Amino acid sequence: MQTWHPWQLDSVLVAWALTQAQSPPPVFESLPRGEPIPPGRAIDTPDSPFRRTGQRTAFEEAVRHSGLTHRCVPLLRDAVRVVELAAWRKPEFPAVEAFEARVLAVIPAQPMRGGLAPALAEVERYCKEGGPP
């Protein structure tokens, strides 16, 4: 599965959802912005089935398409909706801001195949902690 560099929280959460829903989990790759990506392999690009709209995040689309029912989906949905659909409200949600910062701090610094394991580990950490206090 591919997206354009740099990874964002929403696209990382799509990767997490696909990892949870598919066996074996897909391999992820970021490409330079604008490079063509086949629609069946795209994450959070205009041609992807997993893209943000005015009402849903790319993560929500991935969950909807995959049928994922993981216990952490509601927690991650709430966090990514703040980041993607109500960014001006992020200061009201310091735990979400901290989560986003932890994920973005460990994403690959340049386009590459793989390299998402640390970001996916941060997602798992957020799920395990139960999100905001």
Structural summary, described in words:
The chain is mainly alpha-helical and 133 residues long. It has helices at residues 9-21, 58-66, 73-85, 94-105, 117-129; strands spanning 2-4, 29-31. It has a two-stranded parallel ribbon. Helix 1 (9-21) runs antiparallel to helix 3 (73-85) and helix 4 packs antiparallel against helix 5 (117-129). The longest helix has 13 residues, at 9-21. The mean pLDDT is 89.
Spell out the key features of this protein.
133 residues, two-stranded parallel ribbon, 2 strands, single chain, 45% helix, globular, mainly alpha
Number of helices: 5
| Sheet with most strands | 2 strands, parallel
| Count of DSSP strands | 2
Widest sheet, order of strands: 1-2
Strand content: under 5%
Note the overall shape: globular
**Through-space gap between termini:** 33 Å
What is the string of SSEs from the N terminus onward? EHEHHHH
